[in-house]
Model the fold of this input.
Amino acid sequence: MSIDCRQHVEGLRRGSYEDFKALYDEFAGVLNAFVLSLTRSPQQARDVVQDTFMRVWLARESLDPEQSFKAWLFAVSRNRVIDVFRSRMSDPLFDNYLDSVEASRDAGDEVGAKIDFDLFRRRLDTAKLKLTAGQKRIFELIKEQGFAPGEVARMLKLSEQTVYNQLSSALKLLRSEFGTLTLMFALFFD
Amino acid sequence: MNSEITFLIERYMSGDVTRDQRHELKKELAALSDDRLGDILSDVWESYGKSIPVGNFERLTGRRLGMALRPDRHPAIRRMAVAVALVALAAVGGWRLSDRHIDGLANRTNTIMAPAGQRVNVTLPDGTGVWLNSLSQLSYPAIFTGGERRVCLTGEGFFDVAHDSRNPFIIETERYDVRALGTKFDLMSSPSTGEFFVSLVEGKVQVSERANSANSIILTSGYEARLADGGLIRQEIPNTDVFRWRDGLFCFRNKTLGDLLELFERNYDIRIVYDAATLPKNEISGKFRTSDGIFHILRTLQHNVQFSYRWDEENNVIYIVAK
Done:
């Protein structure tokens, strides 16, 4: 930790907003990149950074100038980071998203490989406007909430074949909605 | 085991992980307590940006992403836009034809209105060209019988007035009369929003309040008059983009999302519902083709402004929610 940083930490303890700002400028970017690479969601990364620095400001008096500010920053954000990482990793749609990014990269589709999760979701939401209510429900249950087609058939009291048919017509519509972009490619793979 | 997970997490974070490794990571995570996961992430954080190569991922995201990704324009929609334009042209052409047949009815007033999302180009009997913007209406006599040439405008029109110094061309709007000799100018008078402005490209016009004609100003080319705080303000035209709606372009500079939504509602046959107080106030500039369609425009705007939208297809309403 640089001397500067130490001075800022001491300033922050005394309630200096300028020192808080200096620390924010120094570390917000790293924290943002860290959460972004865990969640792939710029929105979520921003939220965690804002929330964390708010807590930093509120807890400024308990800050130990001998301790590394970087370590302290993580301690403050720790629970949030665990939460967002876990919820992302257990989200079936996120799996589809990662598959899609991977497939785009393998296909040499630069744009598809760069897309973030927020954008992926927005594009999907837009495309879903084209589905019928039945197609949408089945697509969401299987692709977003991770139910097996068999379970969905039982839940909706439909034959399994009907569920498969609805799903494949939904996927076909979404594919045409996405046009030339190979983005979402993987969503339609299995 | 921890070092294995640490390895997987680091690979995952740098966007450099196989599908199998990802599934492995998911399985391991499910079995891990929050305490342990927190410690692992804390270690990763300590060396983050030092030993861990800053991965593909965050190098690739950020500002450039919004620029690189423009939702594709749908060929089907483009074809439709062309069809709509052809229909509009046919409608105008058809009207002219029938007008010739009823030439004898000298005192007849014609009214022409540009439907939502379309623009109409009319040539008046004296040769004056008028481009009517979306949802704007123009009334004018079938024949100008000498003396003043009077027409009535609601909404926005671009006028290229045929020169005739003996017969001044006067446009009546709700609040002001605009008197021109031979000029080119853009005129907007919207009773619904109260907006009024005249932007002069060439020549000279006189703008006078209908209720009090002594209250008038003269505009020369390159200047505009705009209604603000109950009176007209004269200023230089900041940029000529304002005229480009005639070419089917929305051009805007330093507008907030709220400003643009108003514009879209006027230009597309759709209702947009939003709470102005909660909308982000950041200012945006740019241009779109009107034929791109409202959804393309909204999706593109989402790169710069945080909001989401929902389309109620049945009632033709778009709901905008700030994030």
Observations:
- Chain B has eight helices and 18 strands.
